Amino acid sequence: MISGKQMMEVDTKTMGLVNVEDDRLVKIPSGLFGFEEYTEFALVDSEYEPLVWLQSLQEKSLAFLLIDPFIITDDYEADIADSELGRIGITDPADVSVMTIVTVPGDGSPVTANFQGPLVFNKKNHLCMQAVLDGSRWTTKHNIIEALKKKEKK
Fold first, then answer.
1. Would you give the end-to-end CA distance of the chain in angstroms?
2. Confidence band of 1 (pLDDT split at 50, 70, 90)
3. Which among 107, 105, 106 has a CA at the least distance from the CA of 144?
4. Cα separation values, 114 from 2, 30, 106, 121, 154, Å
5. Which of 34-38, 46-50, 63-67, 115-119 has the lowest mean pLDDT?
């Protein structure tokens, strides 16, 4: 990761060429599950805030829509072992940022977020990993709209 506010031109899946500040470039050393060979990404603001694109720098057609799970629900917890977090250099909880992958089905079924496989970002060194949470509290298909409606009622 180059320090400073340099810009990089990124060819995206949905918006063509965009300029991305170098502090929005991330490396996922182990890749994402099912996409292990892709390790270089950029965080690109989506046209639909608060969603963000995780755009592969190696394959233009590979991009994932992300959302902060705490926007969807106040009680989200991602209990990840310190040894796992150490793989991306996290020693201080303040350096952690968590996002979840969003699925927008083409068949009109609910828009969901993968709460069981969150992405954990180290805000200091721009490394990221995908974790797998134990237990059955969170699913890979957490209904976003339903959860937001529940949150509004509180």
1. 42
2. very low
3. 105
4. 30, 18, 17, 16, 23
5. 46-50
Q: Give which of 51, 149, 145 is closest to 102, Cα–Cα.
A: 51
Percentage of the chain beyond pLDDT 90 is: 82
CB atoms within 10 A of CB 21: 13
Q: Which residues contact 132 (CB under 8 A, 6 or more apart)?
A: 33, 116, 117
In total, the chain counts a number of residues equal to: 154
Report cis status (omega within 30 of 0) of the bond before 50.
yes
Burial 129-150 (b: 16+ CB within 10 A, else e): bbbebeeeebeeebbbeebeee
Look at the block and give the residue holding tokens 């805030």. 49
Q: CA–CA distance from 24 to each of 45, 54, 137 (Å)?
A: 10, 10, 31
Report the candidate in 24, 61, 23 with the shortest Cα–Cα distance to residue 45.
Answer: 24
pLDDT tens for each residue of 75-121: 999 989 999 999 999 999 999 999 999 999 999 899 999 999 999 99
Spatial CA neighbour of 1 closest among 35, 24, 30, 32: 24
